## 1
Amino acid sequence: MKKSQSSKEKILRVALKEFAAYGFGGARVERIARQAGVNKAMIFYYYSSKQNLYRIIIKNSLLELIPKIQEAIAVSKSPEQFFENLPKVYIQYFVKNQAVMRMIGFELIQDPGNITSVVRDIFTNIPESPPDLLKNKISIWYQKGLISEPDPVHLILNIIPLCIFSILGKPMVEAILDIKIKNNIDFIDKRINSISNLLKKGMLK
Amino acid sequence: MKKSQSSKEKILRVALKEFAAYGFGGARVERIARQAGVNKAMIFYYYSSKQNLYRIIIKNSLLELIPKIQEAIAVSKSPEQFFENLPKVYIQYFVKNQAVMRMIGFELIQDPGNITSVVRDIFTNIPESPPDLLKNKISIWYQKGLISEPDPVHLILNIIPLCIFSILGKPMVEAILDIKIKNNIDFIDKRINSISNLLKKGMLK
DNA sequence: ACCTATATTAACCAGACAGTTAAACTAACT
DNA sequence: AGTTAGTTTAACTGTCTGGTTAATATAGGT
């Protein structure tokens, strides 16, 4: 029973790319099967439905990302460090896992209720919940007069968008300004830097 | 020939919502027809294909947004004003036209090449191109030592994401922090404020 | 060798899909 | 009343889709 394991996992890997490329509606089960080198029926044998396969992939992806964020929060002893660590972790993860980012993006646009329920589900079953950790840090930092934004909602909404859209929005900005960004590694480095600087100058007191 | 006009336009209005809700692949031509109170064949009669209908809607939407941005840039005599005006224009437009935002989001994720070609197409046929206006302002402001970010790419990528994701990411942040934002008008006001403050503190010298 | 549980396949299905067609309707103009 | 051009419709088509099924293959345990 070794080949089965590889088939089961290969379906996940291939399906992630398929969903990211075409969205749920546009994704084709048969294309996933073909690219995974597996009979179409195997997908239903292992994952019972297209919807279910989709949900499992989203959950897996989030479970992979969360510990990285958890650590970035934990190691940040000051808001300066926090504003440097978090964008770095987010951007580097999403650059390496663009398919994940695209799938999450799709979900947020199409059916926010679905992904948010997955998120809630994950966080209620985690011992040291990263959101709680974050809330505590923010409130302590604000009380100490270190940061200017006391509301965790707006603090988060001032960070995450900058990271995700940096990658997603790149082609758009290239089109708007009518330029071509050649060196992607340089661009990403510059992006992380620009975001960290903006956050430090903009939200530290 | 009066009813035809209203049918033709109603298809556009309904299709915008359909595409925003389900993405291109998930959108159903027949559902558009039914909701527009029109025979399905009418959609092909007026717009020849689903793809073409999609492109026309995207283009129309951008053509509606661009003048607003153009004006926000033009009236901003200082970077302070710019960092206040642009987020306000973006967020207020996207709050009122969430379907447009979702469609653009879909495109950016699924087929960036498509929407970017539409953008290029629009901007090359506009006399006072807003990107050029923006590039000039930024370079002048930087030379005068008023702003800290000389690169228009990163300046834009520090602004637009904050606006778009503020609306799109709201349910996600609610799920992460396990809260419910009740008053949406207050939230949007606070969001515009928080972004303007971040940009002013973070990017002015 | 036989049993059993898991893995895999080809062939199939009913419904849905984008797109077509040809005929009929409408209303303005002559 | 007849012509014309733009609208609208019902009925259709060929293809594709997610999902099913029943038969078969595999391999480990007895």
## 2
Amino acid sequence: MLHKAKKTYHHGDLRAGLLSSARMLLEEQGISALGLRAITRHAGVSSAAATPHFGNLMGLLSALATVGYEELAVALEPVLEEGAHAAGLVYVRFAILNPGLFTLMFRSDVIDRNEPALAAARARTSGMLTRLIDSLGGQQPQRTQAGTRAALWGKVHGLAVLAIDGFLDVLLSSQGEGLSLEDLLEDALR
Amino acid sequence: MLHKAKKTYHHGDLRAGLLSSARMLLEEQGISALGLRAITRHAGVSSAAATPHFGNLMGLLSALATVGYEELAVALEPVLEEGAHAAGLVYVRFAILNPGLFTLMFRSDVIDRNEPALAAARARTSGMLTRLIDSLGGQQPQRTQAGTRAALWGKVHGLAVLAIDGFLDVLLSSQGEGLSLEDLLEDALR
DNA sequence: AGCGTAAACTTATCAGTGATAAGATTCTTT
DNA sequence: AAAGAATCTTATCACTGATAAGTTTACGCT
């Protein structure tokens, strides 16, 4: 409805249009704004128009989360060779730039983790991360491999979640002024 | 309804009863089961009985999250002297033992962070954590204070979230058998 | 003691939600 | 060009949280 002026009965690519509308609503008004009626109204179609494409609301949101995992994989790929520090920064930056989408990706009450496309995208992304971590080899000699994975993944993911929730800003403001959020992340991910 | 057989018009302590019912539903069926009608039905009262005590559903859930922050503070207090490793373990154990409650505590779309009691409990708990981290002093010499806080808090919180989501079990099963979840946490928190 | 007010609780109702069956429109395939 | 299938709309359903009005009980005040 925003871009196309032609009002044909068929939308052309309503599937993509609905995902785009949902994403806009998600980032601008939060997950609670992701109602079926709000999304379809924003896309300029009736509230039942999503059914043939996604089945139900959970199907739509699962498809949106799939987009999130795919974009995260695309962002991570070029820095995988540079090691955990660079990849961690990219991970947290993705979360900060797409807070709603990142949050949705881990909200298993709203998305269906068994959805095949979502499961595939997730497996691909998390496979990249575990391969990256394992490539560090013996840098953490007193830990098991699983312990190293958990520690790194936990720190990065925790920083992302805390950043979205605004906790890192609290830490920054309690500190002296001359520290940016980017500096803090660089520092914490060392 | 479960404990009391006497059916007086007034419940006695419906506020506590509703919180208890909500908590049971939360841990047994997840956050999506926390409807106003489900909670009041479980407590044996009408669906409007919560209004005088909590105003609305968000008020009820905020009060429940407040209980969570208070219990976490109580669990953390005795190990604060033992340092970050012990406190981190307690933090993650609390999350694993109360996955629904812990998740609720960080779901700002469902609870009201400006609720005075909740804000107070949160400030008290996070104050304990920052004081603990700061007491570590110069153990991380090449970091700023805010960076040290973020790194530790992030790792612990990330491990908690990943544990609840089942990611740590995945790491465990990919490892050789002889590693328990507790071992993994010990390892990762080192 | 008992009266009156306020609080707790119930009932009834309202607007809004996601799902779905049935009907209208357009694309596609033969 | 006709038939069939897919897309989209309309109308409706069961359900949700909120709320106004009515009923019951507790409790402070004289």
